[in-house]
């Protein structure tokens, strides 16, 4: 994911993907979702405690400790999860899972004309990104915020993007939430990469949401 291109998360699930997501996680909100989530907007994420999975909604974008831009807090790069002051603490006690239908991102090496690419699964299924979250007291009460853990783009995407969300297989979600911090970071670094990750990429001028501007490209995974 590319900060300069202002990544956008897609929450509008295919009916089959939505059925799979809600069957696995009944706690997910059944309320109508915004089709896309932009930086600073509310984003639903999953938490796990001794009672099971629950869902929470928080702002997409952490307030990092120390010198960092507001935009950089959209992502938690896996390479510095154990070193950055904010991310180190959240890796230990603030992990979450962020369900996605797909995501818009800016390909590397694109011309000055703003171009986005829509990256998602080849077949209708939810994507699960590793995330971290924080809580903060505000005049409006307790508020939540989250960030997507990212890693270098995996096979099939490395030639188009610099980074991607740290996608996890469904069977690895509990491990991500409960493992020791070092093991969780390794899982986020490798994760779904073993299966090649998302396979379908669609390009659109200006990040347009209208299908008539899109050119579909199939990316072969490993």
**Fraction of residues in H or I helices:** 10-25%
Structural class: alpha+beta
Distance between the termini: 20 Å
Secondary-structure element string: EHEEEEHEEEEEEHHEE
Count of helix runs:
4
Structure description:
By secondary structure, this protein is an alpha+beta fold. It contains four helices and 13 strands. The strands form two sheets. Strands 3, 4, 5, 6, 9, 10 and 11 form a seven-stranded mixed beta sheet that branches. The protein has a six-stranded antiparallel beta sheet with strand order 2-1-7-8-12-13, with no helix packed on it. 37% of the residues are buried.
Key traits:
222 residues; alpha+beta; seven-stranded mixed β-sheet; six-stranded antiparallel β-sheet; 4 helices; 16% helix; disordered C terminus
């Amino acid at each position: 994911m590319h900060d300069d291109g202002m990544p956008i998360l897609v929450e509008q699930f295919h009916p089959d993907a939505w059925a799979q997501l809600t069957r696995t996680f009944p706690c997910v909100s059944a309320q109508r979702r915004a089709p896309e989530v932009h930086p600073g907007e509310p984003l639903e994420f999953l938490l796990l405690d001794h009672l099971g999975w629950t869902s929470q909604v928080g702002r997409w974008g952490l307030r990092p400790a120390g010198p960092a831009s507001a935009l950089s807090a959209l992502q938690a790069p896996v390479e510095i999860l154990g070193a950055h002051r904010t991310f180190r603490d959240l890796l230990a006690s603030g992990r979450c899972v962020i369900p996605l239908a797909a995501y818009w991102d800016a390909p590397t090496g694109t011309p000055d004309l703003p171009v986005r690419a829509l990256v998602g699964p080849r077949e209708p299924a939810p994507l699960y990104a590793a995330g971290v979250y924080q809580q903060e007291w505000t005049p409006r009460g307790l508020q939540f915020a989250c960030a997507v853990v990212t890693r270098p783009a995996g096979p099939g995407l490395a030639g188009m993007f610099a980074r991607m969300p740290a996608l996890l297989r469904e069977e690895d979600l509990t491990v991500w939430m409960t493992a020791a911090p070092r093991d969780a970071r390794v899982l986020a670094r490798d994760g779904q990469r073993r299966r090649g990750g998302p396979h379908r990429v669609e390009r659109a001028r200006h990040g347009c949401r209208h299908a008539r501007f899109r050119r579909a490209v199939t990316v072969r995974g490993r």
